[in-house]
Design a protein that fits this description.
Radius of gyration: 14 Å
Strand order of the largest sheet: 1-2-3-4
Oligomer: single chain
CATH superfamily: Pleckstrin-homology domain (PH domain)/Phosphotyrosine-binding domain (PTB)
Order of helices and strands: HEHHEEEEHEEH
Distance between the termini: 22 Å
Number of domains: 1
Number of helices: 5
Length: 122
């Protein structure tokens, strides 16, 4: 479990599922130009976690972006996978919250397990 999540768990909150960016990010143009340093840092510094109370997603280090939403405020978690994504088990997840909030995260490893973990808690 990542350090951000460890520091921001509230009382009686446990991690149910954790995933990270898929290794396919090493084949992007940014990764090639930075000799995979960019992809390695991006994968190492990103955290995608479902706890028994909320979803926590943290990306970045210097310019940090965090997304935290209580499970009771989430209407659905949608998964999009290409053919290659189905074969290699990666895809995009879109979290739709009450009030119309919509956040999409790309190249997530095990997106179907992420959605299943969310559904089992609701």
């Amino acid at each position: 479990m990542g350090s951000y999540v460890n520091k921001h768990l509230i009382s009686n909150e446990n991690v149910v599922f954790e995933t990270k960016l898929h290794w396919v990010i090493f084949f992007s143009l940014k990764s090639v130009f930075t000799l995979t340093i960019y992809a390695w840092l991006e994968r190492w510094l990103s955290e995608y976690v479902i706890t028994n109370r909320r979803i926590i997603i943290k990306t970045g280090f210097i310019a940090r972006n965090t997304f935290e939403m209580n499970l009771s405020k989430i209407e659905s978690v949608n998964v999009e996978q290409s053919i290659m994504g189905r074969i290699l088990n990666y895809g995009s997840i879109t979290i739709i919250g009450s009030g119309g909030t919509r956040e999409t995260f790309h190249n997530i490893a095990h997106p179907l397990e992420f959605r299943k973990s969310f559904q089992e808690l609701c």
